[in-house]
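[job 4471] stage=fold_predict status=RUNNING
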Amino acid sequence: MYHLNLDIPGFVRHHWQKKPLFIKAAFANFQDPLAPDELAGLATEESVSSRLVIQRKGQWRSESGPVTDFERLGESGWQLLVQAVNHLEPAASELAACFRFLPDWRFDDLMASFAAPGGGVGPHIDNYDVFIIQGQGLRRWQVGDKGDHKPREGSGALALVEDFEPLLDVEMGPGDLLYIPPGYPHCGQTLTPSLSYSVGFRAPSQQELLCQLADQLQETGTGQKRFISDSEPEQASLISGDHQQGLADLMIQLMAAPSTLRPMLGTLLSQSRFELDPLPPEEPLDLPGLTAALEQGKELMRIGGLKVLQLEGDQPGSLYLDGHHWQLNTEALALPLRERTRLDLGSLTPLLADRADSTSLLEFINLGYWYLE
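[job 4471] inference complete, writing structure tokens
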């Protein structure tokens, strides 16, 4: 349905996490994956992360969803943003899949937004990479250079910055694409009623990594080794440089051990930041039922937002999904589960012959991670 017109090797070499890029008509004949009314309907749901940003006289304020009253907003100066639409709309998930030339573990979500003329979230700086795709309507985008940008007074939780000198100043129409790396200030202004889509990629912070490590050590009862030394400082009140380095080395040794590092990373990086929307069957599926459905031409679809990952160096057949580790008997099952979002009978035949792996696949389906289409 969607094809991204992008020189991928050139983009990764010259722009990824380095400098912004605008591509006119990156998606030819672009069709929005959902309509404004559908987006508004999602924003009314308690389980969906949404917000409004309202701009009046050069001041912006944010309201958290669910959003139930749109009439009060008028015809200008506001923007509705709905997170993780790829979890909820298969067409949005297909659009996000165009960016799988980047690692799945970095992918955050596809956010969809509708903006009335004059609407926008104000000038701001993100700490993650974002691809902005313009749907229906027209928006003007300005992107500035990295630097010391002062916080905008009175912006509160929006954390806006003062106006900046633009490096890029473009008018975006349907199918246009803008890439913005972390640290570059940017600001969008809506010219006509518009839909747009932000595909975000982020890496975990040091804090997130260490918190995940601490959780894992508590759960497994590991990390019990203590510091020992062969010399002590003369002053009882002093923590010597050697002791400081020895304690740091104790942590480094723990984190660098594959038996600690790999499960910590697999657990953390396979989790979605936003709640998944599993689709379990009405009645638990068994192997004859699955085989019959596949023989009739049905296919298994992965739910939107589910990450299925492998760590290099792990055993063949090892995979992490939704924060859990699974060890399958055969790589023949693990590989298509990781690499493909749609599976037919031909790609599943090897695992259906293996009792343990077919049992694992049925468990994935009955948990709602894959569903028959």
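[job 4471] summary: The mean pLDDT is 95.
[job 4471] exit 0
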